[in-house]
Write a structure and sequence with these properties.
- The complex is a heterodimer of chains A (173) and B (827).
- Chain A is an alpha+beta fold.
- Chain A folds into two domains: 71 residues, Arc Repressor Mutant, subunit A; 85 residues, Glutaredoxin.
- Chain A has seven helices and four strands, in the order ααααβααβββα.
- Chain A has a four-stranded mixed β-sheet with strand order 2-1-3-4, covered by helices on one side.
- Chain B is α/β, with parallel strands linked by helices.
- Chain B is globular.
- The termini of chain B are far apart.
- The chains are: A alpha+beta (173), B alpha/beta (827).
- Chains A and B meet through α4 of A and β7 of B.
């Protein structure tokens, strides 16, 4: 593994990997630094681009199998690009009872994606998550970091539509 | 940890004493009590994942359930390994495992040797209570040697730990989580590793399967023979599994030999070579229209007559013998006896000795013997490691395993000094790169630094008078900063006796003898040990048998071409690949009047012979061989010789009798005993003493020189030639044997020339490009491998490929081989 270079891996887009170099330099030689390094990289790119992980692997002399073993274990790490809006639908017990499943179905239907995936236009990523700790607001979703509660299928569809519209008119967030 | 501390405890009422630090599991094994344990291996860091070895431990009147594999054995405790309560716990764990693990036992390769089967059988696990929930994934075959069945994995983690701790690769790890959890490569990319099969060896289930075994049988059908691996000079014990006279696979045994069950790709998967289709099965005599098959008796008569004739006409110096280094001690001894005593032949030599005669003599003067007196056990005790001109992972992979274990257990620091940036995982403390030719200066510089610091007893005793070089000159000649030389000296003396390894860079180095002497001095002044990585399985033994000792100076092949040597005997040697300047070597052999070759396979040199005699491969014969550490071990016969082939010692003892020597040996043990009488250091080696694990040779006392030149070697400038060649061996190929293995050639079939990334990019070369490497002597084809260990201006080329023999690039007496590299269009 350590022998052949992986510098010429084809990835969809070339990233500016300065942030990776910086964080690697910061944690070099420190034990137990895989998670903070991956977190920093993910915060920057929104996910873990493979070329970034390869650079971490080479410069920290950590095997790819180990890095991706960690990355694939924790739900917080993503290996695919995320959309502009990360919609997390809580499927904990309370939300489930209050019909979270129906919202998931609606979302997947209207946006034509599978759970955990990103729409082709890279606007939405839909994820089912376990309890987010706001059961009193059930059923609840978060869009990026903002939570909205007391939803039903129609209200939920409204939120998605609004986001879509604002995206089209260019209003942004 | 002190050596002798022990603890005594009771396992099911049986009192047992074990070393302190052992686990209860080890104590139970010692007491002969079976414990089901799926994730435990004494050579790995404990994992404690399967929970199957749960036992009740009573200490100070309190009984608690503990895992035997994690609990240190302590004085006076009582262990119960079986009770209703314990059985219930184990049953629950086993129910979970068998909920997931498919019960494919009838079609599983592992059946009969399966740890899970044994444990389930012991626990008497019947159908569980929960519904079965099994993965149903197809077998993954993404490499030539290992098959993966993800369904059968029980996530015991042994493969991950051995790959990380002992192999230093961590090519596989736990991926995903929950029901999807699996052991494998990231995103299931095809396995790209050392293909050592360590994971396969420790896997308790059939999740890893040996692709070379290919479902040829079940474990209980195999006849198992422990023998010594015929590839490199480590001398690992391998277990040959045969069924109906055919070799099915090679397995390893943790409790036999020097290697603690560790093997590399060659040892474990290179077995297809032994019974390859292209073996020579009958004696062959060159007739008018090609090869005629012949019978042994008339052929040997003819060979003896012809050689006698030549010796009578032209004197004994007109005959030369080249001995292969993969022959046993008995073979080499018998060659020397037959030709030395029978015809008075002096020129009996080996190819590596001919390539670098000074090296062996250098070792002789430095150490008083041609082998460093050192044992692998010292690796465990070493205070530091230093590599000089060696790439441990590639050259002797199993020694690298031992070093990694020592680094894990003792945190032994590792230092690397090399012409390239060779890596060693886990991390080395300091890596320095010297200028080619400045090796001696560097090592002598470290000696100086040690003497200056005077922290070791020997340094105090010697004083500064033993200094050979000033630090300033050491820096100037070697290109290594004084600061780094001091760090190396400090690191080597800080924790007690260090161990210094010399490797392949020394073999083909003109100043190899000086480097070896300097290293011997460094070992002396630091109170440490030096070990030379030898190349082939019996390089050491062949040397010890006196091959090359009486050889006259002067180049053999020049003498053949010049007509001074008329007859050539090639005893398991192929100079076309393994001598420098192979083209002129072949021309010379073509000019010889009479050539006899013994070989298991046809090769370019044997093609030019008048008579070719089929010799057995290692697994078909008995014999002894001497490894890196001077340990004499046995070859044992696992299969019958193919066709009419015979072991070399028998061929040469018959030939010797015809030449009038009293060989009188019909049994190999007689020759082993004769060696004990006649060869220095081998007095204690008897067939009986070799029964278990072999025995180390006791060479005569060492003597240290402190005499060598430290001036850097002059490398003549050569116009247009841009790269200096470092010859070596790839991880997968050594000698001619490995190229006959289907699995190994599938892993690597091309000459992979290792180049530096930036330099290659500048020259428009990238990974996988076909290139032509050209020197003044010849040219070969190769494929570019971009390597992290490569440095600009140096190309590393493995030398054992007979289609593109790298040594043909080298002139016989060149200080350095310079080449130019051009890209060729791929077909």
């Amino acid at each position: 593994m350590s022998e052949t270079t992986t510098a010429t891996t084809d990835v969809e887009e070339k990233h500016d990997l300065t942030v990776v170099r910086d964080v690697v330099a910061k944690y070099r030689g420190a034990r137990g630094s895989i998670i903070p390094v991956l977190q920093t990289v993910q915060t920057h790119f929104g996910y873990l681009p493979m070329e970034a992980v390869e650079l971490i692997s080479k410069s920290m002399r950590l095997p790819m199998a180990q890095l991706l073993g960690v990355a694939s274990f924790y739900a917080q790490f993503r290996l695919t690009p995320r959309g502009k809006y990360m919609v997390k639908i809580c499927c904990g017990t309370a939300c489930h009872v209050k019909g979270a499943q129906r919202m998931v179905e609606r979302a997947l239907e209207t946006l034509d994606v599978e759970a955990g995936e990103t729409t082709a236009d890279k606007v939405f990523t839909i994820e089912r998550v376990a309890c987010i700790g706001a059961c009193s607001l059930a059923p609840v979703i978060t869009v990026n970091d903002d939570a909205t509660g007391y939803l039903d299928v129609d209200k939920f569809a409204g939120i998605i539509d609004d986001l879509k519209k604002s995206e089209k008119t260019g209003d942004g967030e | 940890m002190s050596d002798k501390e022990t603890v005594t405890l009771k396992i099911d009422g049986i009192e047992v004493t074990v070393d302190k630090g052992s686990k209860v599991y080890d104590a139970a094994q010692k007491a002969g009590v079976y414990l089901p344990g799926l994730c435990y291996d004494p050579k790995l860091t404990r994992f404690g994942g399967c929970r199957m070895c749960v036992v009740d431990i009573t200490s100070r009147g309190r009984t608690r359930g503990k895992w035997a594999c994690c609990e240190p054995a302590s004085n006076g405790v009582e262990v119960t390994t079986d009770s209703d309560g314990i059985r219930k716990k184990r049953q629950i764990m086993m129910e979970f495992l068998l909920m997931y693990h498919p019960l494919d036992c009838p079609t599983c390769n592992e059946s009969g040797a399966c740890g899970l089967q044994d444990a389930a059988f012991y626990i008497k696990q019947k159908k569980g209570r929960a519904p079965q929930k099994r993965r149903n994934e197809p077998l993954l075959i993404d490499n030539p040697v290992l098959e993966r069945d993800f369904n059968k994995c029980i996530l015991c983690g042994k493969c991950v730990i051995i790959c990380d701790e002992i192999q230093g690769k961590r090519a596989i790890d736990f991926q995903q989580r929950g029901f999807e959890a699996e052991v494998g490569t990231e995103l299931r990319v095809p396995l790209d590793c050392d293909y050592c099969g360590q994971c396969l060896a420790v896997c308790p289930t059939g999740s890893f399967q040996d692709h070379t075994e290919d479902y040829k049988g079940h474990d209980w059908e195999y006849t198992k023979t422990v023998t010594t691996c015929p590839y490199c000079a480590v001398g690992c014990s391998i277990v040959i599994n045969t069924k109906g006279g055919k070799i099915v696979k090679v397995s390893s045994d943790d409790y036999v030999g020097v290697n603690n069950g560790n093997l590399c790709a060659k040892g474990r998967f290179g077995h297809e070579a032994y019974q390859a289709d292209d073996r020579i099965k009958t004696p062959m005599v060159k007739g008018g229209s090609g090869w005629d098959l012949a019978c042994w008796a008339p052929v040997l008569d003819e060979v003896a007559e012809k050689l006698k004739d030549i010796a009578e006409k032209n004197g004994p110096d007109s005959i030369a013998v080249v001995v292969g280094e993969s022959l046993s001690n008995e073979d080499a001894f018998m060659v020397k006896k037959a030709f030395g005593e029978g015809l008075g032949v002096k020129r009996i030599d080996s190819l590596s000795n001919m390539r670098n005669r000074d090296l062996n003599s250098g070792l002789m003067t430095a150490l008083g013997s041609s082998a460093p007196i050192v044992s692998y056990d010292e690796i465990k005790k070493a205070g530091a490691f230093l590599f000089v001109g060696c790439d441990a992972e590639k050259e002797n992979p199993v020694i690298a395993n031992m070093i990694r274990v020592a680094m894990r257990d003792n945190k032994t620091p590792l230092y690397v000094a090399n012409a390239r940036d060779t890596l060693f995982e886990p991390h080395e403390k300091l890596r320095v790169r010297y200028n080619y030719g400045g090796e001696t200066a560097l090592v002598a510089g470290i000696v100086t630094a040690v003497l200056n610091a005077a922290t070791t007893d020997r340094a105090k005793e010697l004083g500064k008078s033993a200094k050979k070089i000033s630090l300033k000159h050491a820096e100037e000649y070697s290109g290594v900063a004084t600061k780094d030389i001091k760090t190396l000296a400090e690191g080597l003396t800080a924790n007690g006796a260090p161990m210094i390894f010399m490797g392949s860079e020394i073999f083909d180095h003109q100043a190899g003898a000086d480097i070896a002497r300097a290293v011997a001095d460094l070992a002396d002044v630091t109170g440490g040990k030096a070990l030379l990585y030898r190349e082939y399985c019996n390089s050491q033994g062949v040397n010890d048998m006196g091959i090359g000792a009486d050889s006259p100076d002067g180049d053999l092949f020049t003498d053949i071409a010049g007509g001074r040597v008329k007859a050539l005997v090639l005893a398991g040697a192929d100079p076309s690949v393994f001598a420098r300047d192979g083209k002129s070597v072949l021309d010379a052999i073509g000019k010889a009047e009479y050539v006899v070759a013994t070989s298991s396979y046809m090769n370019a040199s044997a093609e030019l012979a008048d008579v070719v005699l089929p010799s057995c491969v290692a697994v078909e014969r008995e014999g002894t061989l001497t490894n890196n550490e001077g340990r004499v071990q046995q070859w044992r016969k696992a299969v019958e010789p193919l066709g009419d082939s015979k072991p070399d010692w028998r061929i040469f003892s018959k030939l010797g009798s015809l030449l009038g020597v009293d060989c009188g040996c019909s049994k190999i043990d007689e020759i082993t005993s004769e060696i004990a009488q006649k060869i220095d250091g081998y007095a204690e080696i008897t067939p009986k003493s070799l029964m278990w694990g072999g025995q180390q040779v006791s060479y005569s006392a060492e003597s240290v020189s402190y005499q060598y030149g430290t001036e850097p070697m002059e490398i003549p400038a050569s116009d247009g030639y841009t790269h200096r060649v470092l010859f070596g061996n790839s991880l997968y190929h050594i000698g001619s044997l490995s190229h006959r293995s289907k699995a190994l050639t599938e892993i690597e079939n091309d000459v992979m020339a290792e180049l530096d990334f930036d330099e290659a990019e500048k020259n428009g070369l990238s990974e996988g490009d076909n290139i032509r490497i050209e020197s003044e002597k010849s040219s070969i084809n190769a494929v570019v491998r971009i390597s992290d260990s490569a440095v600009p201006g140096i190309v590393f080329i493995p030398k054992s490929f007979s289609d593109n023999p790298a040594l043909t690039l080298a002139g016989r007496a060149d200080a350095a081989t310079m080449v130019k590299i051009t890209k060729v269009a791929s077909e």
